[in-house]
Amino acid sequence: MKILFIGGTGNISTAASKRAAQKGLDLYLLNRGNNSVQINGVQTITGDINDPKNITPKLKGHTWDVVVNWIAFTPQDIERDYQLFKDRTKQYIFISSASCYQTPLLHPIITESTPLYNPLWDYSNDKIKCEDLLTKYYREEGFPITIVRPSLTYDTVIPIAIGGFNEYTTADRILKGKKIIVHGDGKSLWTVTHSEDFAKGFIGLLGNYQTIGHAFHITSDEILSWNNIYQIFADALGCEAKIVHIASDFICKLYPEKTGTLLADKAESVIFDNSKIKSFVPGFQATTPFREGIKRTLAWLDENPDKKFINPKTNEMMDKIINTYESITI
């Protein structure tokens, strides 16, 4: 099976690339070659997908069983891909986002039929528009789409709400005994998924043509409160977390730019029903609990200290939010 990953070396996609190669799939990665990740057993096409004039000659002569775009974000990206691959692939997989699901939720259990509606975040709205356009192409032109909606998936990033992801800021604060912010009362429920677990489900969709026209989310079944997540994170660092609980509304009034990742995404409980992916990919099961996965992430960061980015602006923001909140409440 001949497969093209557009991207393929990111936080989520690297594990999928490695698993595909291990399965003996004929995998090509199309990217700009800026990532130092090395994956054995794959072929690389170096180029920028956003430069069709440059990339079209490099795709000449190729047809694919599957094309996966890990880095499409806007309808313009989808229109470009449709023109490039409409006659060149038997399956096109779009990586969407679970943040597209109804916000606020009217029912706490999320299935793939949960409505797509998130007016609070441009990122999510753009992903919804991408899905709408792909569905149109499927219905009207027979373009063979499959949609995948990851939730908060991690490997080389820290899956927390403030001062994490591509930053080491909150980890550094915990290690130094400084106060950190947990949004709300910390009791809302969430799911974090290790990318290797995501890859187990994802690889089962490649070339599975029964999935054409369908959407899937792929997450762990482990449900944790945000208090649990931060406590496990602090334990993995070998320290105690000095948590200050602050309402998401309060945070976003001071810093409106946090609206997307908080009010539009992490402020309320979500519980994912993974029945659908399990029915299409028999045997799929996430097996990496957060208490193990976050230790692996921190070990990787220790081996790559240049990735421990401590953002002074985030520190300043957290101090301001905490000081403002405590001056009102204490």
Descriptive overview:
The chain is an alpha/beta fold. The protein folds into two domains: 175 residues, NAD(P)-binding Rossmann-like Domain (Rossmann fold); 129 residues, UDP-galactose 4-epimerase, domain 1 (Alpha-Beta Complex), CATH 3.90.25. The protein has a seven-stranded parallel beta sheet with strand order 3-2-1-4-5-7-12, sandwiched between helices. A two-stranded parallel sheet has the order 6-15. The protein has a two-stranded parallel ribbon with strand order 8-11. Helix 1 links the parallel strand 1 and strand 2. Helix 1 packs across helix 6, helix 3 packs parallel to helix 4 and helix 7 packs across helix 11. 43% of the residues are buried.
What is the helical fraction, as a range of percent?
25-40%
Largest sheet: 7 strands, parallel
Overall average residue pLDDT: 96
Please give the oligomerization state of what you see.
single chain
Write the H/E string, N to C.
EHEEHEHEEHEEHEEEHEEHEHHEHHH
Q: Label the CATH architecture of the largest domain.
A: 3-Layer(aba) Sandwich
At the first level of CATH, what is the class of the largest domain?
Answer: Alpha Beta
Computed CA radius of gyration, to the nearest angstrom: 20 Å
Residues in β-strands, percent: 15-25%
Q: Taking strands numbered 1, 2, ... along the chain, how are they ordered across the largest sheet?
A: 3-2-1-4-5-7-12
* Helix and strand composition category: alpha/beta
Q: Write out the CATH superfamily name of the largest domain.
A: NAD(P)-binding Rossmann-like Domain
- Structural domains: how many: 2
